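Pasting two entries for a bug report.
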Amino acid sequence: MEKRNSRKDLLKSVKRVVIKIGSGVLTGDDGLNMPVMNNLTADISALRKSGKEVVLVSSGAIAAGIRKLKMTRRPRSVSEQQATAAVGQGNLIRAWENAFEEHGYQVGQVLLTRDDLTHRRRYLNARNTIFTLLSWNIIPIVNENDTVVVDELKFGDNDNLSAMVTNLSESDFLINLTNIDGLFDKDPRAHEGARLISVVEKVDRKITRFAGAIPGFLGTGGMGSKISAAKKVALAGVPTIIANGLKPGIIKHLFGGHVEGTLFLPEPVSLCSRKHWIAFTKSPRGEIIIDRGAERAIVEKGKSLLPSGIKGVRGRFSLGNSVLLINEDGEPVAVGMVSYHSGNIQKIMGANSTEIESILGFKHDDEVIHRNNLVLTAHMDEGDAACRLKI
């Protein structure tokens, strides 16, 4: 039996929280579900008045566009979805604006693509914008910029976006509100005896199987993507609760310590913010194949990747991009941020670091990937005790 006070104590220490609200919560039969939005706004405003900062990740732009355009079905093609989102995004932010205005709060719209968070300077600019809004007592409302995003720059869904925003905003907690009570061991809509899992200490294969047994709901993110988001923030030392956003007063109940939804506990040892960004925010743009010696040096000794240990390069990528390191068996070893363009790495692979300048005519670094810019795949599952970098 889960102790009631454990949640209350955990949430009591929270200073900043990301609340992600899915389409299944915000969408009614004929568009946005205003009664639900008003209930959530009241809870969030009360939370803000108590001194806690809130960053809202909101779905619903397409749903709002469907209503405004009087469509009879959800658009199927990418261009139709983007156009519908363009029409609906204004209505969505206006609905939030009107709802929060009743409680004396202003909102600020923040539209992001993965490309905004992949580039370090733009990542930091986005973070500073959110921090400034919070300092002005304005509630940031974040959504993916659907109207301009292309497939390779998409977050995939707002669950994934909420995990990235949690890291971006240095928040202490992630609350993911959906139209189901939490994670069940079976699909509760198909199995009467499905059991709600109250606490998840670690996302393992068993938990992943539970998520896979529950199909996706309205929108692009099903339970699997919510579990993935919870795992990502757990590796940053942040807990998550997945709960039913259709329940009146759900946020108030959660912060009151009520056992609602599924609580995902954080990892005891977490990745620092920079390595979390490298591992989960930057999309790998290519692969570098490394030999046995380089693999041992990186995995067992915590060394950097030198050109002498490189056997091959796949894909085209630029300085500062993330790439996967693949061993001779074809298995991923790590992900890291490169110091050289892919074409230049092909020229210097197998060479000693002292030869880089004579081969290329210049030298950025002795290392192709510095150890501070490397995250082992094992550490992406277990945390990185050696990570001490600050940004």
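Entry 2 (this is the one that rendered wrong in the viewer):
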Amino acid sequence: MSHLAIYPGSFDPITNGHLSIIRRGLEIFDGLVVAVLNNTSKESLFSVEERIELMRDAVGRDPRVEFDSFEGLLVEYARRRQTFVVLRGLRAVSDFEYEFQLANMNRKLEPRIDTLFMMTGEDSFYISSRLVREVATLGGDVSSMVPPNCAAKLAQRFGKQ
């Protein structure tokens, strides 16, 4: 039996914390579907296609990782994929309350869904995509927080070549 999990998120942009969850998730699961949320109500820094390409380049061409996108409810996406394990990263205790509520709501909507929480590494717990965007926008160095291809793309986007 193959064990596959969905790792959903906005990944705008991908961070080293996301990469850590992907690498460590592959130690538990046979494969991961990294599912980029296309939230049309939020303005994104990078398009869904750009985010997928940044992740694909950062992760490499590991055949155990599939990149996809979805809109709407995660449970609907999980049903379409027939994959009912969700992998979520936690940075701090403050993440847990929201993620716990979300996991329980998902389970209420789709009883087959289980969520596995994985703590990020101690070197990434303070990093969030939102903070990376903010620092990059203001000209700060984010090269230690994101993969090199993403740092280059952020520098290009904000004219910091």
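Dev reply: Rendering is fixed now. As a check, the viewer should reflect this: The first strand starts at residue 4 and ends at 9.
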